[in-house]
Amino acid sequence: MAITFEHIKRVSADLYSRSLRGIPDDAMQALKAADQTETHDTARHTLRIMIQSAQQAQSSGSFVCSDAGIPVFFVRVGTQARFSGDVRRAITEGFDELVQTIQPPLLTHVTHPLTNERGYKGKDMPIVTFDMVDGSDCMDITCSPKALGSGRWAALEIFSFPDLRTIEQYILDVVARAGSQPCPPVVIGVGIGGTFDYAAKMAKEATLRPIGTHHPEPMVAAMEHRLRAGINMMGFGPMGTGGDSTASAVHIQYAAGHGFTPVAVAFNCWINRRTRARIHNDGRIETIE
C-alpha cells in the first residue's frame, strides 16, 4: 500500500481545523499549574478565564480565538514511506476545500506581502516545510497556525563569537520588546547557531516541544531554566494583566556553525496551537496530539 493523496488532504485539513478548537493537553496543564503558583489575584482570575474559554471551545467546537492565523505545516517524511500522489498539492487542496466548509468561517488572513490584499489563497500558502527521517515508513504532519500574537514578534540577530551572557541578554531583550503582545503565557522557542535560515527553523520547531520537557544537555537545560525565570520576573503576566506567568516554557535548540552565530526567537501564544498525526504506508492514521 501507499500513502494516498486523499489521506494527506484529509489529515492536513483536519489538523488545521482541530488546532483552532482547543489547546494541547500540556498547555492546559501549564495554565492550571500557573493558577496554583501565581501570586497576583488579577492574573489568577485571567488564567481561570483562559482555562474556561479553552474548555468551552473544545466542548462546543467553536474557535478559541477569532484570529485563526495562517496554516503552517511541519512534515517529516520517512525514507521508507511510499506515496501515490503529490504531497504539497494535497495539503493545498485540503486547505482550499476546508475554507469552503469550515464553521465558523475563517477570516481572510492570507495576505499578499507587497499589496496587502487579503484572501484565502496566496503564493506558497499553506506554508509547508519538509524534513526526512531515516528508517521511518510514515509521514508525520504537525500543524501550528501562525497568527498575529504567535508570529509578529519573532526576531533574529547574528553575532560574532558571542558568549552565553550575550545570547541570553538578547533573548530577554526580544521578550521585553514583545511585552504582552504575543498573548502570554507564551512558549518561547530559541534557535542558536547554524545559518540564518536554520536558526529560524530551529526556533519555530522548538516551540512545538511539549511543555515540561527539557533539553537533554545540562548546560542548555540550565539556560532554559534561567531564561524562563528571568522572563517571569518581567511582570507582564497572563494577557498583560500583570503577574508571574509570562512564559510557560523556554525551549532551546542549537546547531554548530561558523562562528557568526545567529540567534532566533519565536513565540507560541497561550493557545499553543499544535496538532499532529502520522499517516502510515498501510493507510493507518495515528493521532499524536
Structure, explained:
This protein is an alpha+beta fold and about 290 residues long. It folds into 2 domains: about 5-20 and about 65-145 and about 275-285; about 150-270. Helix content is about 35%, strand content about 20%. It is built from 8 helices and 11 strands. Strands 4-1-5-10-11 form a 5-stranded mixed sheet, covered by helices on one side. Strand 10 and strand 11 form a beta hairpin. Helix 1 crosses helix 4 (about 85-100) and helix 6 (about 165-180) runs parallel beside helix 8. The longest helix is centred in the N-terminal third of the chain and has 20 residues, at about 40-60. It is globular.
Keywords:
289 residues; four-stranded mixed β-sheet
Condensed summary:
This protein is an alpha+beta fold.
Largest sheet, in brief, is: 5 strands, mixed
Number of strands: 11
* SSE sequence, one letter per element: HHHEHEEEEHEHEHHEEEE
Poorly predicted regions:
none
Number of helices: 8
| Distance, first to last CA | 25 Å
Total domain count: 2
Shape: globular
Q: Over all CA atoms, what is the radius of gyration?
A: 19 Å
Q: Widest sheet: strand order?
A: 4-1-5-10-11
β content, as a range? 15-25%
Helix content: 25-40%
Structural class estimated from helices and strands = alpha+beta
Average pLDDT works out at 96
Describe the protein's topology.
Elements: H1 5-19, H2 25-37, H3 41-60, E1 72-78, H4 87-101, E2 110-111, E3 118-119, E4 127-133, E5 138-143, H5 148-151, E6 155-160, H6 164-178, E7 186-193, H7 196-206, H8 218-232, E8 247-255, E9 260-268, E10 275-280, E11 285-287
Parallel strand pairs: 1-4, 7-8
Antiparallel strand pairs: 1-5, 2-3, 5-10, 6-9, 7-9, 10-11
Helix pairs in contact: 1-4, 2-3, 6-8
